[in-house]
Amino acid sequence: xxxxxxxxxxxxxxxxxxxxxxxxxxxxxxxxxxxxxxxxxxxxxxxxxxxxxxxxxxxxxxxxxxxxxxxxxxxxxxxxxxxxxxxxxxxxxxxxxxxxxxxxxxxxxxxxxxxxxxxxxxxxxxxxxxxxxxxxxxxxxxxxxxxxxxxxxxxxxxxxxxxxxxxxxxxxxxxxxxxxxxxxxxxxxxxxxxxxxxxxxxxxxxxxxxxxxxxxxxxxxxxxxxxxxxxxxxxxxxxxxxxxxxxxxxxxxxxxxxxxxxxxxxxxxxxx
Length: 272
Fold this sequence. Notes:
Helix content: 25-40%
CATH topology of the largest domain: Rossmann fold
């Protein structure tokens, strides 16, 4: 692969396995950067839950909030939040349908008392395969009395009286909803986000800032919120068992993080 590339890695299911980063992936990221390429994490998580443990390999930046936030070499290039009127309508609609909500902002994941209690009830014990993911969530959590006036980029709901898609329709065309990636949740669980925001939006912010093009981009992902990033990238790595649209658009398909699949992907693309 000629010339330096900028590599965007989804975290959960791609770089990390249930929040655990295999040492082979840490070494691979360091090797890619040592070869002159930039590497960024690109995640649906809010920036507040991208822990130092996940960043330990060393990265050139982070795209978070599924594209709403972009950071490069410590400088924030993008930090888009719900417009105040849309945020107020969203919280009112969620409350009308008794949604238990986690409000994701750059600096914290805000919850009210019912959200804290619901998270604590669902958090797995020590030794669970989900322990690392939940550690990041709980470390980034901040309990508040009210969501009024908060600037946020996304809302995760743990439950509601009606499907989240119905709530999104009530709020208006500015927002969209998708099923949550958190396991074992029921009716009304999902993610509410600004309809025009995807990971591609955050990636483009970084790429344009650097004066690069999509041809310079390598992306790796597995889930439904990775589809746009995979299609945008000049070269794409999909993860075995991932979303069909991701796999269809991928130039290479490799094993999951539990098997160190990115090492194979980077090798096949000549990054290491």
